[in-house]
Design brief:
- This protein is mainly α.
- It folds into two domains: 57 residues, no CATH class; 43 residues, no CATH class.
- Helices cover 51% and strands 8% of the residues.
- The chain contains seven helices and three strands; from the N terminus they run ααααααβββα.
- A hairpin with a 4-residue loop joins strand 1 and strand 2.
- The longest helix is centred in the N-terminal third of the chain and has 20 residues.
- The two termini are 23 Å apart.
Length: 138
């Protein structure tokens, strides 16, 4: 017997939990100046323009995407901005989850462990116990 899910309630609960977790985020106590807010909006717009042209621009193999990224207005902005620390981008922070699920389940070199709840991406294969190719799980 399948359990009925109230999708509106599910989204409300999810939003409430996300909002609660954001209160603990390191940036929750930071107030941006008007100038910083404008800069953030411009960077987001530049990112969105890149995503319109290529929804997979922030995924895939670095050397395949690098020429487009380095010629982008977004890269130009980020390249001249002062950096207070070494920066890196985690895949799950830069890509919409629905996009990852749609893409990951078709690649022959993406593995998932239901036990570990983790993905591994490797063209060399994965021999870790419990990891299965996502296109086989699909």
């Amino acid at each position: 017997m399948q359990k009925q899910i109230n999708i509106d309630k599910w989204f409300q609960d999810r939003d409430r939990i996300v909002n609660m977790s954001m209160q603990d985020h390191f940036s929750s106590k930071i107030d941006l100046t008007k100038q910083e807010e404008e800069a953030e909006k411009k960077l987001i717009n530049l990112k969105n323009e890149m995503m319109k042209k290529d929804p997979a621009i922030n995924t895939g193999f670095y050397h395949e995407k690098m020429p487009v990224l380095m010629q982008s207005p977004l890269y130009e902005c980020l390249n001249i901005m002062p950096k207070p620390a070494n920066l890196n981008i985690h895949f799950n922070a830069c890509c919409p989850i629905d996009f990852m699920v749609k893409k990951f389940t078709y690649y022959n070199y993406v593995y998932f462990s239901q036990r570990d709840k983790k993905f591994i991406v490797s063209k060399k294969g994965c021999d870790k116990h419990g990891y299965v190719k996502t296109n086989q799980l699909r």
